[in-house]
Amino acid sequence: PPIIVRDLAVALGLKPFKLISEVSQATGGFAGINSSLDEPVAMKIAEKYGFLLEVKHRGEAVAPQKVKTADTKAKIEEEEQKNLTPRPPVICILGHVDHGKTSLLDAIRKANVASGEAGGITQHIGAYQIEFQGKKLTFLDTPGHAAFSKMRARGADVTDIAVLVVAADDGFMPQTDEALKHAQNADVAIIVAVNKMDVKGANIEQVKSQMQQRNIAPEDWGGETITVPVSAIKGTGVDQLLEMILLQAEVLELKANPKAEASGVVIESEIEIGRGSVATVIVQRGTLRVGDALVCGQHWTRVKALFSDKGEQIKEATPSTPVRIIGWSGTPDSGATFRAVKNPREAERLAEEAEQRTRKEATVAAAEPKEVSVEQLFADIAATQHKVLKLLIKTDVFGSTEALRSVLDGIKSTKVQVEVLAADVGLVTKNDVLMASASGAVIVGFNTKLENGVTPLAKHHNVRIESFQIIYELGDKVREMMADLLEPEQ
Ligand code: GDP
User: Fold this and answer.
1) CA terminus-to-terminus distance, the chain
2) What is the pLDDT of residues 221-250, one digit of tens each?
3) What residues pair up with 93 in beta bridges, in sequence order?
4) What pTM was computed for the model?
5) Which residues line ligand 1 (CB under 6 A)?
6) Can you spell out the DSSP letters for 292-312?
7) Counting C-beta atoms within 10 Å of the first and last residue's C-beta, which end of the chain has fewer, N or C?
8) For 81, phi and psi rounded to 5 degrees?
9) Binding site annotation covers 50?
10) Above 0.95 for ipTM, yes or no?
11) Do residues 175 and 399 touch, judged by C-beta distance below 8 A?
12) What is the largest CA-CA distance in the chain?
């Protein structure tokens, strides 16, 4: 049976257009979502993503498993098992806007960071670690799903436990459901914190019944979901919440091998004046030490200094520890994974290779015959009866995605149809440009920035990118683009 791009993408957990660009790179030709692939090509791509492709010759297409080659696998596993040591849980806080995510993160941190520590300064570096009842807990300090989903999109499942915040006076809202869906898809343990219990009109019973409707019934209703009433503002219930998180962590038996070469995930990165590129990472495996050579996609560094979330210099970071690393060759993306390699030379070489791969990807894509300029696209559309304005949307948070959709739904026209090909959270990436180019879509960014290198690539492919901070301006622009579609050519 043929191996179809769409099926393979699903099997590998890749976005279809990511796979399309992989296929183009591997074959030098153009592939679409319904293209069939030769087995060796599919094999090679699967391998690149750490899968062994098993093609069933009768019945369904693919059944991949995440394995390395058999004998090294056995050895690695034995070594791993021996060295596995308990590690702190990594927790993220999700929920609807204004339900108190930031307040809860602040309350947890304030109550559990000794006031003398680093002058009590609370730095925001994207993650922090506290100690509660002698146990460590790491919190992602980037509330909202933006960070969470961006990392997931890159396949980096850094979170162990998601705390779903629901305001007691408001109940489940669209973003609460969205967050729930994402947490469930990510297969992380979910704890519900019913916040704002101090507010008049707080109605925890209603929240619980909403939980039941969503098949996450609370424990006292015969379900399994731990539910804790809290008030982030008053600080009540916060200790109970932490206790429950620890309990849940114990059940999960989280472990990692601190003896391995360090590897982990970038949580946040930025350029700091005088320090260059700085990235907050969470170590997932191994121990990160000063002097390590790291590679992270196209970027690398030799670790000259490590800083804790309290701004103190530290010598090493064990699994689940958030740590800040300065002096990268460029700014690594959040969600990207890093690993320690033999020496700086090796790191630099690997980074260069990664960069060349990306460049080749762009060139191959540029050679695709399918490429359509916006003008061409509009002309094509004008030639047909059916006029469609295709959009690829990127926003800062899920809430914005929802808001945009409702604005777009409000724009009605019998002559032009607006088709949203994808609406995701995060930066506008090179892959977005490739996808827009392949499908003839316009990229619409709302409250988000462009990844490095996107502008030249978009120019190269004649892909139009429109960025907005104000929602009604976006609505106006979309109307304008729709009107343009209706203008007779020439
Ligand atoms: P986020 O958007 O989910 O991060 O929500 P914030 O933490 O920014 O909180 C939104 C608003 O709700 C702020 O005005 C907070 O002061 C308020 N708030 C948060 N938690 C509580 C709470 O437990 N009780 C009360 N009364 N107000 C709260």
Assistant:
1) 48
2) 999 999 999 999 999 999 999 999 999 999
3) 163
4) 0.63
5) 95, 97-103, 143, 195-196, 198-199, 231-233
6) -EEEETTEEEE---EE-TTS-
7) C
8) -55, -40
9) no
10) yes
11) yes
12) 74
